[in-house]
# Entry
Amino acid sequence: MNVCTQITPRRHALAAGMLLTLGLVLGVARAADAPAPDSPDALILNLATEVLDTIRNDKAIQAGDFARVQKLVNERILPHVNFDKMTRLAVGRGWRDATAEQRSALTEQFRTLLMRTYSGALSKVTDHKVRLRPSHGQDGASDVIVRTQIVPSQGDAIGLDYRLEKTEAGWKIYDLNILGVWLVENYKNEFSATLNQGGVDALVKALTDKNQKLAAGSK
Amino acid sequence: MRALLCVLLVSLAGCATVPPTAGSNPADPYERINRHVFAFNDGFDRHLAQPVARGYVWLVPTPVRNCVGNFFANLGEVGNFINAGFQAQVSDAATDAGRFAVNSTVGILGCFDVARRFGWERNRQDFGLTLGKWGLEPGPYVVLPFFGSRSVRDAVGEIPDYFTDPLGYLKPPRSYYALYGTRFVDRRSQFLDTSGLVDDAALDPYVFVRDAYLQRRRSIVHEGEAPPPALDDDPDSPPAVKPASTVPGGGK
# Structure
């Protein structure tokens, strides 16, 4: 009778059981911290959870209906976003040379571009969950970063961070970080190339053309 | 196959549009060459990699594809563990080892990512990141044929990465190529949804991909705690006033 063959599987089971218990303990410890109700953390967590729930229960959005995505973004997300600031930062120095009409055209076109781009991503949400990642040393600050992860049922978690500013109307988002990439920063370089070549009008035109092309492609 | 590649290479080599300002960004001194390679990679991706990956998704059911993806990710834990060790990331290295042990056994050769269910997330690592943690700057941005975006630092890191990749030790070579090919198709298939995003989002996909790559690598080296970019905000600047001559009807 070979003793080893009997003991080895039992040892594996024991090791697996110990690992599992440790994992459960860690998991519970992580789930325990809840953010203070008025904090930017709570705002983001509630907003993200609400948006994910809405998409999960909306067949039209899942089918990629752009009008429905637009409605969701306008009603739920945009009230918490300082889009003027976002556009201003992305346009950078060119903002000073822009007239009031050009400024509102830039804001409008940039918003449409982002909505068109991300409506596709939003429509792919299925059983994703939101999880706050710890952010530290921000108590009392008026400009904070909230770090979250979007956790799909299969595959790696996606890092999604928000930069917020405290205003009289509450906390407002003005930049997003997806997988380590800040949105405003990424658009700034692209925009500056166009601005250097043809000024503000060229940028308005480039964005408008781009949006028209995307609108034509989605129909 | 080789003939097809030649045709692709020749037909795509002239396709890149290089703006007159190319190379003026200090992070990208080789922009002229990079844009050509980028156009070539894009053609290769559109005409060969994407169709193959789509075929794979169409042919193979999702649970099997998940299993294949997890299998290769599990082999990747070897490199993750070694690099976490080089970076003295003790807790990450422990997680990597634990993940590899659990997923290789309970998870049946890595087919199921069991370890993830108790909160052991994968820590993707490579030698380029190790060099970054040791303080080496990324250096100029380069676009490598087939590999895509790299910094010089990360391109050099590919060499040690080859040696920490278990697939490299497979014999005979035929099985190595078969698995390497499968892994390539599997990886491409996981990003089919997102590749359209860059085309949609970007005014100039080359610049968009370059800046996203550089930002992302910097962020990982700083473990997601990189200071956010300094933004030049001037909320009170009054809008410019149009010169009289361009106002419609101004000449009347």
Notes: The radius of gyration of chain A is 23 Å. Confidence is low (pLDDT under 50) at residues 1-8, 26-32 of chain A. Residues 183-217 of chain A form the longest helix (35 residues). The helical segments of chain A are 3-31, 40-56, 59-62, 66-77, 83-91, 94-97, 100-123, 183-217.
